[in-house]
Amino acid sequence: MAAFTLAHLSDPHLPPLPTPRLAELAGKRVLGYLNWTRNRRKFYRREVLDALVSDLRAQAPDHVAMTGDVVNLAIEAEFAPALSWLKGVGPPDRVTAIPGNHDAYVRATQHRFAEVFSDYLRGDDAPNEGATFPFLRRRGPLALIGLTSAVPTAPFMATGRLGRTQLDALERILIKLSSEQAFRVLLVHHPLWSDSRPKRLTDSSKLLTLLKRYGVELILHGHDHIHSTMWFDGPDGKIPGIGVPAASALARGRHPAAAYNLLAIERDGNAWRCEQMVRGIGDDLRVQELKRTRLL
Ligand SMILES: [Fe+2]
Ligand SMILES: [Fe+2]
């Protein structure tokens, strides 16, 4: 049987940012807006994102995972363009999305992501319910588990948190899946390890304990905007945790230009094989293969 291909992209930070209404510019958003107008808008480019997504679509993956930071300040005017952008990536049965910290930028609109993108993050067992986390979606050999680590934070902070309730529910899902032969993919916006206190997942140690006990095959995250592979303890060996650059980014400093991963997954005897192909933006917005490596 042919391998199942899962594409992973993250952090589109959808440009351009609509001009916020005055009433929306308070607290953390003032700083975020200044950062956008002075800095970020030069490096997050719609033409980059469009080139990346068109290459991704041409690769015709079986499924796409999008790990958050679709919008920037979570102002109301960002959400309709963001939904139409995601529809351009693919329909809800072919694309799974989770929120990032920018999608829950302030308390007033932190619920909007789950409302607007509900079709893209609804679990298979909850067709009529609103979005709940964690959710479980089965596609081919995959069991996709979506978490939210997106919480509003103080200015200059971009931490994430899962919370006890979500972790308890995750444990129940992992127990259920442990008796099956599924390729378990955990989607979470924040990486499970960070050397940056203001950007870290504050309760990652509890998640790592669950993964060590029950395992998953693969962890996909965003947030750091860099190519990244980290290995975490599972019950039968190490679990790869993969991060990607921002999907709209021009290269800047230590942050590489936009890229996405294609993961080819197949059963090989009693084990899983997973090959990672990295495709990224080069000169003239041409997307090319940057790397190919076997993860499992
Ligand atoms: Fe981001
Ligand atoms: Fe983020």
Can you give a write-up of this model?
- By secondary structure, this protein is α/β, with parallel strands linked by helices.
- The chain has one domain: Purple Acid Phosphatase, chain A, domain 2, CATH 3.60.21.
- 25% of the residues lie in helices and 25% in strands.
- It has six helices and twelve strands.
- It has helices at residues 28-43, 46-59, 76-89, 112-116, 164-177, 204-214, and strands at residues 4-9, 63-66, 95-97, 135-139, 142-146, 183-187, 218-221, 228-234, 237-243, 259-268, 271-281, 287-294.
- It has a six-stranded mixed β-sheet with strand order 3-2-1-10-11-12.
- Helix 5 (164-177) runs parallel beside helix 6 (204-214).
- It starts with a strand and ends with a strand.
- The mean pLDDT is 95.
- The structure holds fe (ii) ion (2 copies).
Quick overview of this protein structure:
This protein is α/β, with parallel strands linked by helices and 296 residues long.
Annotate the secondary structure layout:
Layout: E1 4-9, H1 28-43, H2 46-59, E2 63-66, H3 76-89, E3 95-97, H4 112-116, E4 135-139, E5 142-146, H5 164-177, E6 183-187, H6 204-214, E7 218-221, E8 228-234, E9 237-243, E10 259-268, E11 271-281, E12 287-294
Parallel strand pairs: 1-2, 2-3, 5-6, 6-7, 7-9
Antiparallel strand pairs: 1-10, 4-5, 8-9, 10-11, 11-12
Helix pairs in contact: 5-6
